[in-house]
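G., the chain you wanted modeled:
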Amino acid sequence: MKLFKMQLSRQQYHKALVVVSAMLILSVFFGYNTWTERKQYQVFLQNTYQREFREMVTNVENIKVLMDKAEVTNSTVQSNTIMTQIWGQSQSAAENLGQLPISHRALSKTAKYLSQVGDFCYTISKQNAANKMMDKEQFDQISKLENYSGKLLDELYDMEDQVARGDVRFGEIRKQGKLILKRASENAVDVKFGKMDQTFTDYPTLIYDGPFSENVTGGKPKGLDGDNINKEKALEIAKKFLGTDKIGELKQVSSGSGVIHTYGLETTPNNGEQDYQINIDVTKTGGHVLWMLNSRDVLEKKLSNKEAADKAKDFLKKQGFGDLVESYFLNEDNTTMMTFVGVTKEGVLLYPDLLKVKVALDNGEIVGFDSYHYLMAPKNRKNLTPKLTEAQAKAKVTQRLNIDRVKLAVIPLPGNREALCYEFKGKYKENDFFVYINAENGNEENILQIIKEENGTLTQ
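Predicted structure as tokens:
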């Protein structure tokens, strides 16, 4: 009887041990799972807040560029457009700012600045709609606002660096609720914004492809000529474009049915390397190469931008394109993306006739090509003789712009239209601008600011 009780006791002991172990394992599991979910949630919050912050920075960047343009315009139509855009950007920036886990006290002045920028520009836009330009006092106010936008950007860029380094983490702030300044640590978001907010003590679409590269978004391709071709002809054209000796098996992998219908082709290089591909699209009408991309890694830079430009020009000449001039460029990952625009024998720039060529800076190989804008634009333009003289057009440009060059240029307009304009290149407040005056009626059609950076030249 005693032996039975001892055995029963041991059995109960083992059962209890199993139950306790199971509970411990489950506790560890649920604890780890909860910790993982909390960590994932913090990462999600951090990414969400970083996106809101980045969008706000972009809004402020756009506000500054638009204000630069506002100081140069001499047209109520252009001023109205610019002011409306500033109003929209300030609204978006204020909305993104409000989404961040920051106390009202820390961002009150920044929010006030964005609100007043929007209100002021909205008022000017209504004034422009009544065909009335800004007076001197209002121009001075815009100049003051633009100055503060530059200071705000400097602070935002500094905060952006701190966020990238992990010194500021929005996600960790949120779980404790919005911080109070007097209880916050030196790295707290409230403190960073509080210091930035002290900047405001008083006050009231890269394009990397060159001017007008984003104007062509629809319509019918006006430069697409020739008969329809079959797949075999498309393969032949692609081989000639890429170089028969450089490619392996070429095959069709897709059939593009967008604005321009294409044969989507793919090949691997003919040198034994299989770790990258070359894709090329050939139009079904006329057999034009629309697009090409060589995905190989370019590991070093040996060529200068001038040498790359010479390679691109030689390539375009061999492909049978007409007269072109180099426009803008962007360096990235040991490659240079260059844009070229058409030009008439009389020297009129044809901005709609835009081609993009990407050159590898290790050996000068053409690793990218895009002719979409070129094929969308008309090719037989007539009446490129201006009605206004250069002097008459120049009188339409604000005297604040110090003009140093004038050319005739065809530019695209909304609604798939074009206009012959005088292109006035000039400087205002150390910034370079293009102002386009319609050569037929004197309207100020557009203003572009030229941005020069280490990796390229762009316009906004």
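The radius of gyration is 30 Å.

Shout if anything looks off.
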